[in-house]
Amino acid sequence: MRRGRISAQYRGRVRSVDLSDVIYLRADHKYVTVKHLGGELLIDESLRSLEQEFPDLFVRIHRNALVARNRFLGLEKHSDGTTWARLHDCPDRLQVSRRHLAQIRRWLGQRDRQTD
């Protein structure tokens, strides 16, 4: 059975977040920041392992970021040519790498056709 929470040690206690509350996961050096509805949590797991464990929940937008599929609102193109992800329940904008952009556009097109 698959786990439904992400947990981390914090000041001698275990803090957990429901996967349904996760907005995005962003790698920074050795750790991954879990941005969730209640704040942030720092975990010691790799993005790759989380992406492989939860391919139906998260989509990769950059080598350092996964976004919860159900929180992905759309894409925003800036005048400098960069593309950014807009997210439900979060003012943060995350850059979408050129490498992942075509895949994200295909996924968004398929998702939008399914909801019509």
UniProtKB/TrEMBL annotation:
Pfam families: LytTR (PF04397)
Domain HTH LytTR-type: 6-110
InterPro entries reported for this sequence: LytR-like, LytTR_DNA-bd_dom
Keywords: Two-component regulatory system
Keyword Acetylation on entry: no
Top-rank lineage group of the source organism: Bacteria
GO function term, MF aspect, one: phosphorelay response regulator activity
Keyword presence, Chloroplast: no
UniProt-recorded name of the protein: Alginate biosynthesis regulator
Organism: Imhoffiella purpurea
Source species taxonomy: Bacteria, Pseudomonadati, Pseudomonadota, Gammaproteobacteria, Chromatiales
